[in-house]
Amino acid sequence: MTYIVTDACVKCKFMDCVEVCPVDCFYEGENFLVIAPDECIDCGVCEPECPVDAIVPDTEDEPDGKWLQVNAEYAKVWPNITVKGTPPADREQFERETGKYEKYFSPKPGKGS
Fold first, then answer.
1. For residue 112, what pLDDT is reported?
2. How far apart are CA 110 and CA 79, in angstroms?
3. Comparing C-alpha atoms, which of 111, 78, 89 is closest to residue 14?
4. Is 12 exposed, middle or buried (0-12, 13-18, 19+ CB in 10 A)?
5. Contacts (Cβ under 8 Å, ≥6 apart) of 89
6. Where does the 4Fe-4S ferredoxin-type domain start and stop, copy by copy (predicted)?
7. d(Cα 76, Cα 50) in Å, to the nearest integer?
8. Do residues 60 and 25 make contact, with C-beta atoms less than 8 angstroms apart?
9. pTM of the full predicted structure?
């Protein structure tokens, strides 16, 4: 099992999760974070840190494994992030919106740390 970041993170990107990760397995996109499944040790400490409940075990992924695939793909090309940055200023507008990945997701990398 691994943990995965899901739709709720898009355009919110709070980043509280990155500082508690003991193995630094978070990677940063322009408006989304992902977890490298091959690096995650399944400790679960990141899950309760997310204020929008975007982090879940991969056992709670969609039936087609969408989020595991997204996390694995972008963890290979985005920079690693280990220090909490500044979340988007307009994040509160998007906190409870659904279907954000299809509407707003950017494949561009973030800054990393």
1. 84
2. 7
3. 89
4. buried
5. none
6. 1-30, 31-60
7. 22
8. no
9. 0.93
What are 29's two structure tokens?
A: 């996109």
In this predicted structure, what is the pLDDT of residue 96?
Answer: 87
Measured distance CA(97)–CA(64) in Å, rounded:
22
Q: Which residues contact 10 (CB under 8 A, 6 or more apart)?
A: 31, 32, 94, 100, 101, 104, 105
Q: For tokens 């709670």, what's the residue?
A: 60
Tell which residue, 27, 37, 48, 53, has the closest CA to residue 1: 37
Both tokens of 5, joined, read 């970041």
- Cβ distance 105 to 43 under 8 Å? no
From start to end of the chain, where are the E strands?
Answer: 3-5, 26-28, 33-35, 55-57
Which residues of the chain fall short of a pLDDT of 50? Answer: none
- Return d(Cα 46, Cα 68) in angstroms, integer: 16
CA-to-CA distance for 70 and 33, rounded, in angstroms?
10
